[in-house]
């Protein structure tokens, strides 16, 4: 039973991290695309790459943090 709770926590941590990372990545990617004057349709690609990369990294770290925290009992 404790394993299911731990898996749910890790999954939730990954999902929350992905959502936060995606939001931050979209804002940062838009800023960088405008700042570096990325031309035309490449702007969408640049923003998408930044969004997905940031979401993956944030999700990974929040999921890992949830996994580490899951083993502790207070």
Q: What does this 3D model show about the protein?
A:
This protein has helices at 2-35, 42-70. The chain has 2 helices and no strands. Helix 1 (2-35) runs antiparallel to helix 2 (42-70). With 74 residues, the protein is an all-alpha fold. The longest helix has 34 residues, at 2-35. It has one domain.
Task: Please write out the topology.
Layout: H1 2-35, H2 42-70
Helix pairs in contact: 1-2
Describe this protein with a few key phrases.
74 residues; mainly alpha; 85% helix; rod-shaped; transmembrane helix; Romo1/Mgr2
Number of distinct beta strands: 0
Question: What structural class results from the helix and strand content?
Answer: mainly alpha
Total separate domains: 1
Average per-residue pLDDT, rounded, comes to 91
Series of H and E elements = HH
Shape summary:
rod-shaped
Q: Which percent band covers the strand fraction?
A: under 5%
Tally the helices: what do you get? 2
Spans with pLDDT under 50 lasting ≥5 residues? none
What proportion of the residues is helical, as a percent range? over 70%
* First-last Cα distance: 17 Å
For the report, how would you describe the main beta sheet?
none
What is the radius of gyration computed over CA atoms, rounded to a whole number of angstroms?
Answer: 16 Å
């Amino acid at each position: 039973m404790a394993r299911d709770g731990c898996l749910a926590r890790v999954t939730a941590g990954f999902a929350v991290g992905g959502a936060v990372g995606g939001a931050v990545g979209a804002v940062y990617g838009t800023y960088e695309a405008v700042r570096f004057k990325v031309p035309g349709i490449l702007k969408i690609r640049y923003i998408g790459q930044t969004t997905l990369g940031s979401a993956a990294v944030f999700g990974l770290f929040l999921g890992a943090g949830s996994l580490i925290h899951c083993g502790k009992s207070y």
